[in-house]
Structure formats: C-alpha cells, structure tokens
Write a structure and sequence with these properties.
The protein is α/β, with parallel strands linked by helices. Helices cover 32% and strands 16% of the residues. It has helices at residues 11-24, 63-71, 165-210, 231-240, 263-272, 280-286, 319-331, 353-356, 362-365; strands at residues 2-6, 27-31, 45-52, 75-80, 98-102, 118-122, 135-139, 145-149, 214-215, 223-227, 246-249, 252-256. The strands form three sheets. Strands 2-1-3-4-5-6 form a six-stranded mixed β-sheet. A four-stranded antiparallel β-sheet has the order 9-10-12-11, covered by helices on one side. Strand 3 (45-52), helix 2 (63-71) and strand 4 form a beta-alpha-beta unit. The longest helix is centred in the middle third of the chain and has 46 residues, at 165-210. It is globular, with a radius of gyration of 23 Å. The mean pLDDT is 87. It is an enzyme of class 1 (oxidoreductase).
C-alpha cells in the first residue's frame, strides 16, 4: 500500500494525491527518485509517480527507474505534458505502465485553473482494470463494421445522488474540443507547434544566459528555472509588464512559454531579465534547432515514433472542412429532431460558429501568465 511520488511533481498534484490516498488507506512516500532507496519498501511498493517534464522544466530519463519499480512488482505512472509528447519520447517507450495528464494545451483556454479534460493511457495488460468505457471494434449482423462498448461505468450505473452528469458533460465537451484541435492541425501541425514552443524557449534561455543569469535546469522543453540576484525586483519588473512569473524563492523564478507566445512577448520577457532585446533576432536565427537536434533535450529522448496516425488527423485542415466534419458527426447523434433522447447522449452537442467566437476573446483565451 506504499506509493512513491517524486518531489518534483507539481505541488498541486502531490497535494491532491495525498488527499485522495487517505480514503484508500494508502501511504504516499515523497522523495527524490534519483536517490530514494526503493529496496526499503520491498513488496509494499504499489507504484511510483514522476512528472515528464517535471515542475521545474527538467526532462529526465526514467528508463532505469522503470526497471527498478517493475523489479519490485510496482507500476510506473508518468504525469506528462501532452504537447511535449509530440516531440519527446512517449512514456510507454521508456517503460511506463500508465501515462496521465490534461488536454489544456490542445486548444482549451486556461479558464482560470480549469476545468480541463484529462487523458489516461495504459498498457494492454491493464485494459480490463480501467474505469470507464473501452470502445471495441466488432461486426454487426449484416457484416458491417461496428463499435461496441466493452465496459460501461457511468450515470446509468450510479445511484441517484451519486451521479455526476454535469461534470461528465463538462469534461466531454472539453475532450471533444481538444480532439478537434488535433484533427485540425494534424500530426505535422502539432509537431510544428511543439517545436516552435521549444525554439522560443531556447532563444529566451540564450538571452537570459547572455544577461549573466544562470538557467538551473540544463534540460527543458518549455520551462526555465532562472537564478536571479533579487527575485522580488524581477517580479516587480514582470508585474509592470503584466507578466506573472513563478515565485520559487528569493533568488529563483520560473517561466513557462506556451503555443501563443509572440516575439513581442518574448522581447518583454528578455527585458524583464535585463537581457539584450536587440540581440533577439540573431539568437533566433542561430540558436534554436528543433527538439530532435536540441542540446536542451537529453540524448535518446527526442521522439522517433509517429503521432496521430489515424487517417482522420490528416483530412480536415481548413475551416470549411472542419465545419463539415463536425456537422457530419453531429448528424450521427440521436436527437429530439428524430426520437426521444436516450440516457448518455447529453454530451453530444454541436456549437454554432457564432457561439464559439467568444472563446477566442483575449479575456477568455489569452490569460496565460
């Protein structure tokens, strides 16, 4: 009943983990996965959780950890950033049993903390232990291809006051939004977005280093942990530009870039760290290779395998094509226009373009600190 969590997971992740563990009678052991004595836990080790990249931006190689955890009968759980996985080695390839995270980076505004739909992936060995529904491919009586629910655990199985239909609906709509983001951009587009984030981060790192400051994490995807002479003064300059930096301690600040970063915002950040804004263009031209060639990513951790291989991710890359595709999906749903709505269809709705416009407003869609 002992579950290990690396101390460099996000603090909010550790807090939720400890709270939920109380109800299961599980013991959460927090430590540094690089130095922790896993042998001391013996066969009590149920599993281990690590973050990839971690809360300070480090991209770590967990292959030896996976071997250690498996040798003691545990499972390795990786909390991963979905956008980074487009260009970083996926957890399943370095031995993880379960990968978890949220889909916020796939087209969903931050929304002042949530909600964001989660993602959960596991090995085939765990497929019958997964809560929720698994869609299986089968054939109907006429021999046509059909899909069936192999598992069902939702409102129809939950008693009265324990049902959570509103939560289910809110998460499903966000999951659909993230899925359509992936459909629209496709594998090449998603990789381009991820590489652009990393290149901007490299340019910022070069500018910060050029200002005489130290980047404390040698490996990174989109997050830098910067050592500064006076964090309070750095935060004051950032606040004047309406930029929020992470408050780590009196001599350390954190900064994370996202897919919406612009050159103007990058220049503001360089100015906050008292770097040379005039040198930005030269840095961008000469010091920003893709993740596959980046010195900021450990050897062997750049992704080699394909992403988004289903044909649907390579078909709809214009607004007209996307609207037609979404309308086609909506037309397959049983609605009040043609029958009584059965239980479980509450999450299949089509939002008109005019209803989607407000989510592009900066008040909703551009609040990233």
């Amino acid at each position: 009943n002992a579950f290990f969590a690396d101390h460099n997971c996000h603090p909010q992740t550790l807090a939720v983990l400890k709270t939920r563990a109380e109800g299961f009678g599980a013991e959460i052991v927090v430590g540094d996965y690089k130095t922790f004595d896993f042998a001391a836990l013996g066969d009590r080790l149920a599993g281990a959780l690590v973050s990839y990249p971690d809360t300070y931006g480090n991209v770590n190689d967990f292959r030896s950890l996976a071997d250690t955890v498996h040798a003691q009968g545990g499972q390795l759980v990786v909390a991963a950033d979905l956008m980074s996985l487009a260009v970083l080695q996926p957890p399943g390839e370095f031995g993880a049993d379960i990968a978890i995270g949220n889909t916020q980076r796939f087209g969903v505004p931050l929304g002042y903390g949530g909600p964001h739909a989660a993602f959960f992936a596991t090995t085939l060995a765990n497929q019958r232990r997964v809560p929720g529904r698994i869609i299986g491919v089968s054939r109907d009586a006429a021999g046509n291809r059909a899909y069936r629910l192999a598992l069902q655990t939702r409102e129809q199985h939950i008693r009265r006051e324990k049902a959570s239909s509103n939560i289910c609906t809110a998460q499903a709509l966000l999951a659909n939004m993230a899925a359509m983001y992936a459909v629209y951009h496709g594998p090449a587009g998603i990789r381009d977005i991820a590489n652009r984030i990393h290149r901007f981060t490299q340019v910022l790192a070069a500018a910060v280093t050029g200002a005489g400051l130290q980047i404390e994490n040698q490996s990174y995807f989109d997050t830098l942990r910067v050592r500064v002479p006076d964090a309070a003064a750095t935060h004051a300059r950032a606040n004047a530009c309406r930029i929020n930096l992470r408050r780590i301690d009196e001599n350390t600040v954190g900064v994370t870039l996202d897919e919406a970063i612009t050159r103007e915002e990058l220049a503001q950040l360089v100015d906050v760290f008292e770097g040379d804004v005039a040198a930005l263009d030269a840095l961008a031209a000469g010091a920003a290779p893709s993740v596959a060639e980046s010195p900021a990513v450990p050897a062997g951790l750049a992704r080699q395998s394909a992403i988004l291989t289903h044909p649907v991710f390579s078909r709809y890359h214009s607004e007209t094509e996307m609207l037609r595709y979404i309308t086609q999906l909506q037309g397959k749903d049983l609605s009040l226009a043609n029958a009584m709505i059965p239980l479980g269809s509450c999450t299949m709705k089509l939002n008109a373009t005019t209803e989607l416009i407000p989510i592009t407003w900066p008040e909703f869609g551009s609040i990233h600190p």
